[in-house]
Amino acid sequence: MSEYNFAYLNEQTKKMIRRALLKAVAIPGYQVPFASREMPMPYGWGTGGVQVTASILTPDDILKVIDQGADDTTNAVSIRKFFKKTAAIETTELSEQATIIQTRHRVPETPLREDQILVYQVPIPEPLRFLEPRETETRKMHAYEDYGLMHVKLYEDISQHGHISTTYAYPVMVEGRYVMDPSPTPKFDNPKINNCPALQLFGAGREKRIYALPPYTKVTSLDFEDHPFEVQKWQASCELCGTSGTFLDEVITDDKGGRIFVCSDTDFCRKQQSEKFEEAG
Amino acid sequence: MYVAVKGGEKAIDNAHKLLKEKRRGDTQIAEITTGQISEQLTLAVDRVMTEGSLYDRSLAALAIKQARGDLIEAIFLIRASRTTLPRFGYSKPVETDKMELSRRISATYKDLPGGQLLGPTFDYTHRLLESELETDQPASQQHRGILSDQNSIDSTDVKSEIANEEQTIAAPIIPHVLDLLGEEGLMEPPSNEPKDHEPEDLTRQPLSFPASRDLRLQNLARGDEGFLLALGYSTQRGYARNHPFAGEIRVGTVAIEFEPEELGFAIEIGEIELTECEMVNQFKGSEKAPPQFTRGYGLTFGHCERKAMSMAQIDRSLRAEELGEQKTAPSQDGEFVLSHSDNVQATGFVEHLKLPHYVDFQSELELIRRMHQEHDAASPESDQQAKDMTTHEAAE
Amino acid sequence: METPIHGFHNPPVESSIAFRAILNAMSKPGTVQPILVDLAPVEGINKGTQLAALTLTDHESPVWLDENLSKQSVIEFLRFHCSAPVSSDLSGIQFAFLSKWHDAASLPPFPLGTPTFPDRSTTLIIEVESFKKSEGVTLSGPGVKTTENFDAVGLGPDFWSWMQQNNARFPLGMDVILTTDKEIAALPRSVKILEAY
Fold first, then answer.
1. Which element (helix H / strand E) includes B250?
2. Which of A29, A48, A258, A281 is labelled catalytic?
3. What's the pTM?
4. CB A249 to CB B359 under 8 A?
5. ipTM of the predicted structure?
6. Would C78 be classed as within a structural domain?
7. Engineering a disulfide at B312: which of A82, A154, B106, B279 sits with its beta carbon 3.0 to 4.6 angstroms away?
């Protein structure tokens, strides 16, 4: 461990990131530019989340890392290993036990608490990017709350397809001011982002942006009166724990169209399984 | 019963073991040394140093070996290492007119002060495979080959003999070709910045647009050679056409000077090899600037001539706005060029598509299925195939 | 004899603990965060201010000092332990250190950020005597579940009406860190002052 500074980043880099984090918290939903550093893992693989986690981590923290809701996906394993090695901190797979949870693409099913921090890995922080590729333009749109383009896009979806065709990275409005990309979490998770007791921090390393949602921030998914926002629902329940109402992964079991559904949140699923087991005696 | 796939950690460990084996290849063949790489794959090393933004031949050689010859991977390794290094301060600007030259050519004048010096170049080789290179030559007893030591008399002989050039380079200062034009008043000054202008640094401050020229040049110097080459090429083919002349290309070593705070004067701390390219572009004048020749500038570590030339082309095309030219092509669009030039960023994001995306995909799948059903319900006989599929699904 | 160290003994660890307190304070306005790091006192500033300076400032963040704090011990501490340039050019000030809240009228025109870059603003670090949780103003906004009562001895009505104006400019504005020897609290620009004096 001695060959690295605690949590890998040098102190000067951490100061720079910490200053950006405070600004992000003070202006919820606004993307603060920061001088993202090259990390020993590729851009696009969580370098933003890793830099944020490295800058907030204390030796007493217990870290959980998930990718697609699961602790044992390869990139989650790799990032967890990185912090074990560079910060010698305790890690866990239990959502309740963690003080910091770094995530890619999911919000845990287990409700978060005030003493927890959720760190998101973000690939494209700009919700308007696919409508307007120029940073100079989107920056102005945020400055003047000019979000007409986003509403037009969503409405065009409805008129063409009868649905808003955005199913993940579904744009949200933060405290009535900034339109924000919740990262490519499924829109299923959007309600959990609203009024969440935990601090939520978003890091985009390649795009060099940090943004944040303090606890209990009002976050509403963009929608229309005649087409209110709704989350995905599954007919099936989890094949492993039997729970319904969680986000389910589809698993193809053979080449004849056989498929089952299992919880994407592996920790939540395991907990449900053991509770069921206990109930059964 | 279905059991979820586990074992990510073990799979990663095994992948690392396999990678190590693959890197070594057939153990019957001697392992390549980093010394061999830095001496014999010099141009690969130069590229890794340039785009890795760190001048260290042995680290670059190590990175190339570790990356199994994948230069972008090697550049990434160097960048990641560079970012952990402490920053002691900033060197004085290097003075390329005091460069000890190993190559210097100008396409704009037949002869000029300082002369033309071909140096080690592929330019006039016939691209025929040299089968004698297939036979390994034993290491020589002599410490260094004559061509690699630029200071020896032998090498000067070789240079003048092969290239049929001026005898020696007598004057320590070789003026830049573009400055000769400048004296005539036909060339714009090298920079419009005041002399005491502190260059910005994109590794310390996030890039914002429009970016200043110093930041653009820093970005291009770190940028991917292939990307710049293609963009530079596009400017010659009519996208932002602005015919460049290779005013001067020089390759050689310059001294690095550093002024320690406690000393109060600059001391030489070493030498580095650089390639510098200055392009000359005709300019008819606009509302913002008079008719004159304009400049495009390229600079790299080591000998990266193609990169330096492309960089100079793009530097010039990115000055469109400053010079009051119409912006019509990708190479003139600062935000587009600077946002996509970095191959470490680009490769990371393209390759991240390998990571699991099943949650997002599941979200899409759910929507497409629903829309598919609604589509079929709305037009039951319009698409026989779709109908068949629905029946098939219903039967499952 | 060992000279007392005004900086962190173990910067990576102590700065992480200090930053978590500041982050908690900023993301939960109205809460008071204890200082868990042991510091040798610097003459002229309290420990909360010392902690904030050590954790947040360096050569890339110009700082400003009010008249009471513009003394040798403080300037030397900032220079030696933080490498923070003390500047009088208001336009680039990232952190302004105030020995107390003087009044809104005498607050220099620090940057509030711009519509395109609201983050390019100054953070005020203001020393107070102590915190009060039972009386004072009622806060709400991001980071506050419903409402939170909060006050600090040394602020007064002038400060709270300034804070209200500060919030009215959102997303522009300054963020405030309040410090004592034992604790810190923070008031981001997003905080709403429901009931002032």
1. strand B244-258
2. A29
3. 0.88
4. yes
5. 0.97
6. yes
7. B279
